[in-house]
Amino acid sequence: RRYPDLVVHRVLKELIKGKGKVGPKKKAAWTAKFPEVAAHASERERAAEKAERDLTKYFQVKWAEGQVGKSFEGVVSGVTNFGLFVAIENGVEGLLPLSALEDDYYEFVAEGLELVGRSTGKRWRLGDAIKVRIERATPALRQIDLAIEEVEMSTSEKKTQRKKAEAERPQARKKSAKSARVLVGPPQEKQRNDRPPRLTAQKVYFGEWTGEGEAAEAAPEKKRRRRKK
Questions:
Q1: How high is the pLDDT of residue 215?
Q2: What is the pTM of this model?
Q3: Which residues contact 64 (CB under 8 A, 6 or more apart)?
């Protein structure tokens, strides 16, 4: 993997010796040799990376072999047409097959890299939290099989619930405003008979005077005076 760096160092050394200039023979040799060197270096680097990943996966599966039956918090790290890849807390990654998602029939949507439930519309995407249980570990196949232990609300479901709550708020406000209103009819004209009696100074200080009693007492006196005449 370090051979490309060694080739670059050799070229820089030749340029330093020639003070930035390279002879035509050396330049022709490099032009003929470097494409083959670059292809060989790239191929060996890919092989080394593959061996490193394979060894890392082997030790991960060996660790999971002793954790069968235990539950771990995880995050969806990959979505495929055959299941979900879940990375647990320590970085170990396992496969949650579609057969383990028993709450619905899920379809793979390649455009959004998600699994969508046909009946419920539930979605599984990258980054969704999930609690899984290690069901089986096979070091020879470098494979860890997982099962759902507990499902947390996915990010898409949280967004859907938030939108529903925001949509219901204005409707609730309108209902409360309607219930608080008091219907008032057109103003009715007051009749004159409904008006309160008018108070005068005589009624306030001497009571209400009708004049019937004094008129009755004054009538016989007038008659008596007429008889005397």
A1: 46
A2: 0.52
A3: 92, 94, 134, 137, 144
